[in-house]
Amino acid sequence: MSGVSVQIDEQGPAEVRVIEQLAGGERVAHEPGERYVAEACERAWRDLARAGRRLPAGTVEVLVLEDEFRHVPSGAECGRAIARAA
Fold it and tell me: Could you tell me the residue ranges of all domains in the chain?
């Protein structure tokens, strides 16, 4: 089953880290400048702005899970999960 898990540590400068866990258990870290991370951040900020909120200061750790069919949640799905957790 694919999914997105978000943890927020409200200490330090704002930073979003995205790690993808493949179906076989291998983990791959996405770089901050990658399109997937940029799309996730843009969606999170847009959803939060609509609600009159913003990301808290600190680190946002995102674990994206690939399912058995090799489906990975999109950057937009990741961003929605970030906004819900914030």
Answer: 3-85
C-alpha distances out from residue 76 to 13, 48, 70, Å: 23, 13, 17
| DSSP strand pairing (15-21 vs 59-65) | parallel
Q: C-alpha distances in angstroms, 24 versus 1, 9, 18, 29?
A: 12, 28, 18, 15
- pLDDT per residue, tens digit, the chain (86 aa), is 567 777 777 766 678 889 998 888 899 999 888 999 999 999 998 999 999 998 878 888 999 988 888 888 899 999 999 998 88
Nearest to 23 by CA among 81, 69, 74: 69
pTM of the model: 0.80
